[in-house]
Amino acid sequence: MEVNNMIKAIICAILSFIIPGLGQVIAGDLKKGIILFVLALIMGFLAAIVFKEWLVGIINLLISIYAAYDAYVMASE
Fold first, then answer.
1. Whole-prediction pTM value?
2. Helix ranges (DSSP H) in the chain
3. CA 59 to chain centroid
4. How far is CA 31 from CA 3, 10, 21, 36, 59, in A?
5. Distance CA 43, CA 15 (A)
6. pLDDT at position 69
């Protein structure tokens, strides 16, 4: 992997961890980025209504970790 691709992959992962789906958009997959972003919003909203506050944080963290990993893999290719 070239240094530029590795830097792009790391940046995409960080952005997607902060805002799920943003890294996928930067990596070139707009549809997947939008789907992940909307999924994160829906899951966060539903979890906030149904579950306790600490569980909402765990669900959002898991979504962010997956989005960051996926963005890193996408940008690495």
1. 0.80
2. 3-18, 22-27, 30-50, 53-76
3. 12
4. 27, 20, 9, 9, 22
5. 19
6. 92
Dig out the tokens for 17 from the structure: 């961890």
pLDDT tens per residue across span 5-54: 888 889 999 999 999 999 999 988 899 999 999 988 888 787 778 776 77
Taking the alpha carbons at both ends of the chain, their separation in whole angstroms is 9
Q: What Å distances lie between residue 63 and 6, 18, 68, CA to CA?
A: 22, 10, 9
Q: Which two tokens stand for residue 33?
A: 């980025």
Radius of gyration of the chain (CA): 13
Polymer length in residues for the chain: 77
